[in-house]
TrEMBL record:
GO MF annotations in UniProt: glyoxylate reductase (NADPH) activity; hydroxypyruvate reductase [NAD(P)H] activity; NAD binding
Chain segments annotated as coiled-coil in the UniProt record: none
Residue ranges occupied by any D-isomer specific 2-hydroxyacid dehydrogenase catalytic domain in the UniProt entry: 7-318
Class in the EC hierarchy, top level: oxidoreductase
Keywords in alphabetical order: Oxidoreductase
Catalytic activity: glycolate + NADP(+) = glyoxylate + NADPH + H(+); (R)-glycerate + NAD(+) = 3-hydroxypyruvate + NADH + H(+); (R)-glycerate + NADP(+) = 3-hydroxypyruvate + NADPH + H(+)
Name listed for the protein in its UniProt record: Glyoxylate/hydroxypyruvate reductase B
Length: 319
């Protein structure tokens, strides 16, 4: 079969693909346009997709030959799963291997914002390290505070574990369903969305993004949060209304925000959020460790190759 990859992946995954009995197609140049992407996909049996290309109904209509999709990501919001399922196209993703790395970034952002680290680093770089002032550069401590996890799956669990171990934080969470194992292990408490918003000192998003969640965190919700709230998002930028977030941060409605994901990506250099001292933005690097990316490469390649051998993908998000 023909497997199309829009970008090369780490060697461990390339080897699995190249050792299989398939034709592996990779564009010669690094970044291809949407038109070129579609042209390649039209000729492929399987695509191994790196990045957030929209694979929606129109895309599927244009690729009648397509039989399977292997995503190089755990998130699958870029794919119309219902449409893929209707067409009997399995969609694989890469769970587990990036949970620690992504939760590390959520934890890092939380600490960075609580102590205004990136703002202060910028001050040093700009030559603005002034004299000691007892009232300046004041952060807030995290010990014993309440972490609210929105979406307590694998990544949310890793974040909660770290916050409990490092700062003895209370853990509350809101999910589609309760997770009694996590409640037992971390003493976590299941709460309604309203309670999560109202009672968290840090609110960290770890849910899978769906269209209905667009702008879920908006002015109305920020207004209900504590003034010391640290908002962390390492999931998908679509969860936050960035204009509302800017106002909430500027007006002191909430304390700060740490974002590894923005809407859109990449974030424009002129985005007003970047002017604020209580914000730290990273360029979607949650899974960017050698270990996590090797793990993702292995799973994504294995998923693609298993399909070509008539086997079920190991990690498939649709039945
Ligand atoms: C994921 O795996 O979903 C990461 O966000 C990278 O896209």
């Amino acid at each position: 079969m023909k497997i199309f990859l829009n970008k090369a992946i780490p060697q461990v995954g390339m080897k699995i693909l190249n050792d299989s009995n398939n034709e592996i197609i990779i564009p010669a140049k690094e970044n291809i346009s949407d038109v070129e992407f579609l042209k390649y996909c039209k000729n492929a049996d399987v695509i191994l997709n790196v990045g957030g290309n929209k694979l929606d109904k129109e895309f599927f209509d244009n690729c009648p030959n397509l039989k399977a999709i292997s995503l190089f990501s755990v998130g699958y919001n870029s794919v119309d799963i219902a449409e893929a399922t209707k067409r009997k196209i399995p969609v694989g993703n890469t769970p587990d291997v990036l949970s620690r790395a992504t939760s590390d970034i959520a934890f890092l952002l939380m600490q960075s914002v609580s102590r205004l680290a990136s703002h202060n680093f910028q001050k040093v770089k700009d030559g603005n390290w002034g004299s000691f002032d007892p009232m300046e550069n004041l952060g807030q401590e995290l010990y014993g505070k309440t972490l609210g996890v929105f979406g307590l799956g694998r990544i949310g669990f890793e974040m909660a574990k770290k916050c409990k171990a490092a700062f003895d934080m209370e853990i509350i969470y809101h999910n589609r369903s309760r997770n009694e194992e996590v409640e037992k292990e971390l003493g976590a408490k299941y709460v309604s969305f309203e309670e999560l918003v109202k009672n968290s000192d840090v609110l960290s998003i770890h849910a899978n993004f769906e269209a209905k969640d667009s702008n879920l965190f908006n002015a109305e919700i920020f207004a209900k949060m504590k003034p010391n709230l640290i908002f962390i998002n390492t999931a998908r930028g679509g969860f936050q209304n960035e204009k509302d977030l800017y106002k909430a941060l500027k007006n002191g409605t909430i304390w700060g925000a740490g974002l590894d994901v923005t809407n859109p990506e990449p974030m424009e250099k002129s985005n007003s959020l970047l002017q604020l001292s209580n914000v730290c933005v990273l360029p979607h690097i949650g899974s960017a460790t050698i270990e996590a990316r090797n793990g993702m490469a292995k799973i994504a390649a294995e998923n693609a190759v298993s399909f070509t051998k008539g086997e079920k993908m190991k990690t498939c998000v649709n039945p």
